[in-house]
Design a protein that fits this description.
Blueprint: H1 3-16, E1 19-23, E2 28-32, H2 34-37, E3 50-56, H3 61-78, E4 81-87, H4 89-102, E5 108-112, H5 127-136, H6 142-148, E6 158-163, E7 166-170, H7 171-176, H8 186-198, H9 216-223, H10 240-253, H11 265-273, E8 279-282, H12 285-291, H13 296-299, E9 305-308, E10 323-329, H14 336-347, H15 349-358, H16 388-391, H17 403-410, H18 413-423, H19 428-442
Helix pairs in contact: 1-5, 3-15, 9-10, 10-18, 18-19
């Protein structure tokens, strides 16, 4: 990516379209500056247009309810029929790949991380729409802009947001283990896990190929100074820093509840709500489910749930890694203008603000203006999730995003390395060496 282009766009977006948006549960209103109000764009849907959208399935019922309410509004306004199919995260990626290879399938796909870089030539250029939204709503956060504009020239899709995979914990159990506040360093974090195990209230985090919840493995490696690639895209995962991270991860894993090696994204939710674990990493969906559960035993734990960002490791800075969501339009669509108009409609404040509310904080916004949505202040336990996109590091850190970064993330190279070292199936050095070789297949010189 060209740094000049990225900086120029971000400065322009923030300067031209500074927005103060205020959203309430009952209605959504935006206090636009005159320049923001002047931002307009028109996409004229093709005659007889119909759209098919493939998106990841819900972990929060309010997410899909609010999304489908917006879809209904779009159809009522435009007359365009929209079919929405929901699939698990693990199923969206292969279906998107099939669509890209065959040139047939959904018009729009809501996918994860920088998957758009797996098939950039297959996607519709949405630069005009992205720049319109950026100018109107205070600018895109750098992480969102970098994901979707890797060459500095065009947008391969639109950022949708991120599910912050923060620490979710039971306050009473953490206090019983001897901690009045949640640990802020990796040393204290390990002490907490050991104490929780001794108390019979262990924690646990996913070590299977979990699309969202395995992002903690990125945090682990980065917290100790390791990284998959350097700024020149040279693979450097087999390093002393990575070894230290894996040694720490092995010690941490020794205090996990059994079974985490096979955990996918739903497993820790179920374990936490069943009181099998007291600490994990997750989106706000665990808290949301507890608050809205029809089961009194589950609902009664909601007041005891709280959230925190991951502790800081030896590098001395926060190293946050979250699951990023994007929206891609495939070139094979017969209705490109209708597809762009659909995305524009869904990202406008009236719809997007209501969706943030409906999702209960499960998705953090990619546009700065939506920081003002009251979902983040209506409950103090929601606030830690607000800045997920603002603070995250791309999965391809510290290199350039592209096919290699997308492929390496999709292949779960970092989570597999951590799982191998943690479980003892390989020594930390052996696990790092294997990860190095796997990554080099993507990052070819």
């Amino acid at each position: 990516m060209q740094e000049f282009n990225r900086r120029k766009f971000l400065e322009g977006g923030a300067g031209v379209g500074a927005v103060a948006a205020a959203t309430t549960l009952g209605a959504t209103t935006a206090l636009f500056t005159p320049s923001a109000q002047a931002q307009t764009i028109t996409f004229k849907p093709e005659k007889g247009a119909k759209l098919r959208v493939l998106r990841w399935s819900r972990f929060v019922q309010g997410d899909i309810d609010a999304y489908m309410a917006n879809v209904k509004k779009f159809t009522e306004k435009t007359g365009i029929e929209v079919r929405v199919d929901n699939e698990g995260w693990e199923d969206v990626r292969p279906k998107a790949a099939v669509a890209a290879n065959t040139g047939a399938g959904p018009d729009i796909i809501l996918s994860t991380n920088d998957d758009a870089n797996l098939y950039p030539d297959k996607l519709l250029d949405v630069t005009d729409l992205a720049e319109y939204l950026g100018k109107k709503y205070g600018g895109w956060y750098p992480a969102g802009e970098m994901f979707m504009r890797p060459d500095g020239k065009k947008w391969l899709g639109l950022p949708l947001g991120a599910s912050g995979s923060l620490i979710v914990y039971r306050e009473s159990m953490v206090k019983a283990a001897g901690f009045d506040t949640f640990p802020k360093t990796t040393d204290e974090f390990l002490k907490l896990y050991k104490a929780l195990k001794e108390k019979g209230t262990p924690g646990g985090m996913a070590l299977g190929n979990a699309t969202g919840d395995s992002t903690w493995c990125n945090w682990l490696v980065w917290a100790f100074g390791g990284k998959l690639v350097d700024k020149d895209n040279k693979v450097v995962i087999d390093s002393p820093e990575t070894i230290k991270a894996l040694e720490y991860g092995k010690e941490l894993y020794a205090n996990f509840v059994p079974g985490t090696l096979s955990w996918l994204d739903p497993n820790n939710n179920k374990a936490f709500l069943d009181s099998q674990i007291s600490v994990t990493n997750n989106g706000i969906s665990i808290y949301y489910a507890a608050k809205n559960s029809p089961d009194p035993k589950v609902k009664e734990i909601a007041p005891d749930i709280n959230h925190a960002v991951f502790p800081v490791g030896p590098v001395g800075v926060s190293t946050e890694s979250y699951l990023f969501f994007n929206q891609m339009v495939f070139k094979y669509t017969k209705y490109p203008q209708a597809a762009k108009e659909f995305l524009r409609f869904m990202m406008e404040e009236e719809q997007f603000g209501a969706w943030l509310q409906g999702a209960g904080g499960y998705v953090a916004q990619p546009l700065r203006a939506y920081e003002k949505n009251t979902i983040w202040t209506s409950d103090p336990k929601n606030l830690p999730y607000r800045d997920a996109v603002k603070n995250l590091r791309p999965a391809g850190y510290a290199g350039k995003l592209g096919y290699a970064s997308a492929g390496a993330a999709a292949d779960f190279i970092i989570p597999n390395m951590v799982a191998e070292a943690a479980s003892g199936s390989k020594t930390p050095k052996e696990a790092a060496e294997r990860a190095q070789k796997r990554a080099e297949r993507y990052y070819k010189v």
